[in-house]
Amino acid sequence: MSDNMKHSLNPNKWIVLYADYLYNYAITRVDDQDVAKDLVQETFFSGIKGKDNFRGQAAERTWLVSILKRKIIDHYRKVNSAKGQKEVRMNFYEEGKKKGNWIEEKVPQAWGNDAEKKIENSELKDALDACINNLPEKYRMVFLLKTVQKYETEEICNELGITASNLWVIIHRARMQLRNCMEENWFKQ
């Protein structure tokens, strides 16, 4: 795009052009159909309300997705802000040959290309999705934002009002719970 070409908004066509895309984007991040629909509706409303702030530097869909991302973060911030929630404690292996805690070098690393091929296996994907959905809400939220959606640590911490060290403790505990769940539901089959 040249420097002098500006994008424009056409709110009358948003539902036809972008509703399905935005819904699919939202549902993969919140895993609740009603919440995803509400977030898309709020995105459209905020877009109309803030259309005078649109500078035309991004495509219309890109601009709406950026609004939706903020709505998703706001949703998780609201979920997380319930004061007095007990933090679920992670039970590490206390007996047997797996006894003890993981040392830093042994923490699970990001999966490589081979794992992406295995993810195509629908049974593995179903088992992994079930394990992720069984995580406590706070763990699931932080895990998905950081590991799946690749949000920056600082952005997650600012939005959720947690420290970086707390974020990494949550990520570690979520991974440990996912590991245990996958061992029980996938690898022992």
TrEMBL record:
CDD domains: Sigma70_r4. Pfam families: Sigma70_r2, Sigma70_r4_2. Residues 18-78 form the RNA polymerase sigma-70 region domain. Residues 126-178 form the RNA polymerase sigma factor 70 region 4 type domain. InterPro entries: RNA_pol_sigma-70-like, RNA_pol_sigma-70_dom, RNA_pol_sigma70_r2, RNA_pol_sigma70_r4_t2, RNA_pol_sigma_r2, RNA_pol_sigma_r3/r4-like, WH-like_DNA-bd_sf. Keywords: DNA-binding, Sigma factor, Transcription, Transcription regulation. This is Sigma-70 family RNA polymerase sigma factor. It comes from Lutimonas vermicola.
